[in-house]
Amino acid sequence: MISYKKMPQGVLQINIIQIFSTVGYAVLMGLLNFYLTDHGGFTKTQANTLTASFFALNFLLHFLGGALGGKFFSFRGLFLVSVCLQVVSMFMIAEHNQTMIVYGMALFITGAGLNVSCLNMMLTQLFKTEDHNRRIAFSINYSCMNIGFVGSFILAGVIQSYGAYTIAFYTAAGCLALTVVLHLLNFKNVEDKDTFFHNQFSKSNARFLVAPGIILVCFLFSIFLIRHAEFGSNLVICVFILVFIYLAFIALKQEPEYRERIIAFMLLSSACMIFAFVQGMQSSALENFVEFNTNKSLFGITMEPATVNTFESLGVIIFGFMLAILSKRRLKNGTTLPPGSLITRGIGLYIIAFMMIPIGILLANKNTGTVNVIFPILLLLIVAAGEIHVNATSYALVGDLIKPIHQGIFTGYMFVNVAIGIVIAGPVSNYAIGNKLKAEDITALGTNQMYSNIFVCLTVIAAILTIIFFLISKRINKVFDNIKE
């Protein structure tokens, strides 16, 4: 078992905070697409585009959270403010008014977007650079995040069957309020260490103007991009290119050993794009697939789209704790599984996962085209196994490879990779439903072939990426060996 006695003070508290802090995001992930069409007055293609843009912008602001946290905010202070913003946003989204929904989404993005990098950095800074327990802590923390997802998806699935969305949003607000209380109780354990804010900016009165100003600009920026979702996707791509160039410039100025570590981080963190694409599909294309292309029944139990999402989170919880336990055993034996190999294995699992939809369609009912709901469930379970290898490992890489002075911005860069993956999911989701504007125009027979084409292509892409990562993993693993030496 995992012993918190051997972990730094504050790790257990962060794990518990992680459970409750994800509820708002999970509820929106499970319900937003259908809520926008049922109560927001949006067409199905508008809802798909807006949902993909919403989640992509969320991860784009993760970059700002990483870049600005530790500089103009303390990580713990920014996390506190961001969760408070999410509480307010859930009440706004609960109003069945298109304008309030849009403003609520913008406020939620501002809060949720800024806080994840902060939570990761608070956890990272509890460990010394050479402490391999960090990877175990991140595996557990990733599983705790998905405990929150499971509860939220079950709640969302039940509520979706009754159409009572408001109850879900109020419940999420309550869980986020509890997060604020738990974070305040843990506040003393997660003080910034060796950051610009801690060493210099915290002593300046300018922080009282700069911090609120940045949050206000982020909110207005989010409103604009939600109202003009077509610009959001292009912005994410532009930001990715600019940040990549900037970090490459930073790498070139470093000594050879540290430069190699930066390059290794940038290569490995790019694997997050694949997970992000699946997550983007999960909140749009896969939910639509479950709704319109499956029998929505598992052993006689009705499966709403939000309920099906539960299986991915359950898988992450199970595989996350399994990976943490196996990592602990390896540490006892004086060995570790290199991150490059872990991520390669994770991408390889996506190959099997993506094959589930084409296989399900091949075995679909010939008259109606409906697919057994077990196939998207199997996809999500296998994706979960790959996700825990890719994401939990990637989250811990910052502490392994990057110096404290650069950790915030590199954590943010990892989330820009995630934003790129989600952006791609939007148009792919619209292609899958034939760009139909109305839900009643979508049929299984009319869209099965497009879903099959998409997932066959994804299978091929995952196979190619697995081969590439396998070929470079030995070289990357040597970088970690050099750190130990």
TrEMBL record:
Subcellular localization(s) per the UniProt record: Cell membrane
Segments traversing the membrane: 12-35, 47-65, 77-94, 100-124, 136-159, 165-185, 206-226, 232-252, 264-286, 306-326, 347-365, 377-398, 410-433, 453-472
Sample GO molecular function, one term: transmembrane transporter activity
CC terms in the record's Gene Ontology section: plasma membrane
A matching Pfam family: MFS_1
Broad class of where this protein is predominantly found: membrane
Keywords of this entry: Cell membrane, Membrane, Transmembrane, Transmembrane helix, Transport
Membrane protein topology class: Multi-pass membrane protein
Keyword check for ATP-binding: no
InterPro entries: MFS, MFS_trans_sf, MFS_Transporters
Protein's name in the database: MFS transporter
Species, as recorded: Francisella hispaniensis FSC454
